[in-house]
């Protein structure tokens, strides 16, 4: 078990927000081509974009708080863990014919989201401990 500083957590939240907005925009603007390249249905990419916009908005809002609210950070981390689980289902259980690029993309972004979720969870633990002291 590890902890991270508030300044590191804030950077992770900004990274989560920026990467989420970028991914969401690409999924909306390029749903057709991305669907062909990855084997993920365009409608799924568009719905995923809306979900990601919500999470990215929460991450950005949390990053702007003077005192990082541990409950909000935990909520974001839990959502990110759920995203990783959904990504694994998409890759191995959804019955889609993902392309090699598609499988690589799903697993790569799941790994990045998993790392951010772990860091956010560790930061929330630290923020909670500090608030209780």
What descriptive keywords fit this protein?
133 residues; 0% strand
Q: How would you portray this structure in words?
A:
With 133 residues, this protein is mainly alpha-helical. Helices cover 83% and strands 0% of the residues. It has one domain (6-132). The protein has helices spanning 6-29, 31-38, 42-63, 70-92, 100-132. It starts with 5 loop residues before the first helix and ends with a helix. The mean pLDDT is 93.
Write a concise synopsis of the structure shown.
This protein is mainly alpha-helical. Helices cover 83% and strands 0% of the residues.
| Count of the domains | 1
Taking pLDDT < 50 over at least 5 consecutive residues as the criterion, the unreliable ranges are: none
Helix share, percent: over 70%
Percent in strands: under 5%
State the separation between the terminal residues, measured CA to CA: 19 Å
Instruction: Write down the secondary-structure element order.
Output: HHHHH
E-strand count:
0
């Amino acid at each position: 078990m590890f902890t991270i500083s508030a300044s590191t957590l804030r950077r992770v939240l900004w990274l989560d927000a920026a990467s989420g907005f970028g991914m969401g925009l690409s999924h909306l603007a390029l749903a057709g081509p991305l669907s062909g390249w990855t084997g993920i249905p365009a409608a799924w990419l568009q719905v995923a974009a809306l979900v990601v916009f919500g999470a990215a908005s929460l991450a950005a809002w949390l990053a702007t708080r003077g005192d990082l609210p541990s409950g909000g950070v935990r909520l974001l981390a839990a959502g990110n863990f759920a995203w990783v689980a959904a990504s694994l289902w998409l890759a191995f259980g959804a019955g889609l014919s993902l392309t090699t690029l598609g499988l690589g993309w799903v697993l790569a972004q799941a790994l990045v989201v998993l790392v951010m979720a772990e860091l956010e969870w560790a930061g929330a633990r630290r923020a909670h401990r500090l608030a209780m002291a």
